[in-house]
Amino acid sequence: MKHLRSSCSRSSWLRAGGIVGLAASLAAGIAGAAGAQVLPPSPDPTCTVPQQDFTGWFKSKPGLNQPVNPANSLGLDTSNNCNFYKWSAQMFLWLTSPDAGTLHDKRVLRSEAFYRLDQGNLIKQDGILARNLSLSATKFGPDGLPFVLDAKGHLREFVTVPDRAGLTASNALGAEGTAEIAAVRAGAGGKAEFLNAEGKPIQTFAPKVTAGMLPQQLGRLAGLAAPTTTSGAPGATSERRQIADALTAKKVLMKIATRTGPVFVEAGSGDIVTLSPGQAGDHGVLVSQNDAIVYYEVLVNDVYAWYLTGRKTPNGIAPTYDADDPATFGLFPTSQPDLTAIFDFAKKHGGPSSLADGNALAVEVKLAWVEAATLPDGGKGYITAQAEVPEYDRTTNPADWAPTGKTNRTQVALVGAHVVGSTNGHPEMVWATFEHQANAPLADYSYMSGGKETPVPSNPTGPWTFSASGPQTNYNAQLAQYDKANQHIVSTASPPVKIAPNDVLHQKAWGVASDGQPNQADKTPAIAANQIVSLNTDIRAKLSAVGAASDPRFNYLLMGATWTLGGARPTGPFPQGGNEIGTSMLANGTMETFAQGNDTKSTSGTNCFACHSSNPKETQAQASTSVSHIFGSTNPLKTSVESKEK
User: Fold this and answer.
1) Tens digits of residue pLDDT in 119-174
2) Structural domain for 237, as ranges
3) Domain assignment present for 146
4) pTM above 0.70?
5) Burial of residue 596 (number of CB atoms within 10 Å: 0-12, 13-18, 19+)
6) Do the domain assignments include residue 592?
């Protein structure tokens, strides 16, 4: 049985650097030329949109390139999972809608209602300013550190040991000392054996994380230690030592560079940890089958921007945010009183007189783009934009792409999107993800048809944007990474080899693992997957019925959505006994490419909340703003009140 197969032909996140400018024009490509992928036939209609409701999604009437209203997040009926999925689908259609009130016929996500995140600052869009993208979709674990997957597919955060750094270690007698490490090799019992500059073993058995291995900006790591002083030491120094000790106790990994590539050693035990195939560390770069680099950007809506600003302004929106005090983190807006407080603050501080789409509540969006010229028919059938992208020298050293210092104006096409937003009763936010239908194949899965569980074997036959046609042996392997030090894109192989295109496979089709009960309502993986298949099928049928099959939005699929029971702090995917529900093993093939695990089971790989977890020092029942990786590190808007005071 075919599924998600492309019939087209081919033509010849954020925290990393590599900034490029995306110019003003967001335009729609003409759909259809990119080919049609096939959803499995006749899914049971377990999640559909009543015709009257679907009509109400649109500002005037359903049709080709017609604008859509945002979902009413304030009034979301949270009584069943399907309503969350419908919220997700409507929000994507709204974000990618043509916006009549925007300069040059841009889309809503390019309108003045959205701000782009640029190096910690919120930049209001006006249809003219350039937009900034990132070259890698660096993912961070629950403590804000980069992570890899070990051989069992488990998430393991790591610190990087600086070159020629001294490692603190405990010897067999329990005494501590510092030794200069020149090399690492596997010793007896899988323990790391450290060598000095003369190549002689150093008697160390339990390497420890040190304060010097921590990032300069602690961010979420600050939650591992109390900001107190000990022995007269400065508070900051004491805090970093406490954090380092806490990380050692948690047995995080230590990434140590060697002549034959990085070695990952477990802190506290000294065990060398084997990684899943294709794992290389942070700042992974995704490359399409036609050698196109994937670029990323993050946007937030006006509600999010003014809420953040109010929370970070003294005497603004209570409680005033303090990065060192989890009790002040607060919750994302979920109610009309929350929204009213944001309106009032914005009006008093030079903001807009109204927030037209305020009932959408707080929205955060992450987008993935590739150069449209590398896609079939120049990206027809995609949401597209004009961009200035950096030029790389790929021929002098095919294993090390060096920037030339030049940029090229080109058109980029949208290949993936995270749509995240707070809703009625859910401050942890609903995390939904979308991909273009031509991206990559799915692994085996099952859905419901005729009341029976129906298997869908994986069909890798392409062509695909992010996978070669036919079965591959190295799916989801990180083949290149962005080197922040010199802004190069380099091979992760040892020794380095020519950077090659990635082969991507969606290990958990529709965000559903093949084992366990996916969520509180769906007893089997097939029932859960069917809800997403059913909704995609229903929306496509309704768009086709009103002549909108050539609308580029038609070519994007909801891959799933996840949230927690009652908006509580995340505790783990439902199949593993946690409270994260919906399609609880969700990953986007363009953003979490290298974190999907090595099989279809829930014990391998990660989901959204594996990284977007709550601060460990929080005590309230519901999830706070700490689930967002950008809220704490983003600067507030400059308000008119601030300007007068300065």
Assistant:
1) 889 988 865 544 556 675 556 777 878 877 776 767 788 888 876 444 554 443 33
2) 154-266
3) no
4) yes
5) buried
6) yes
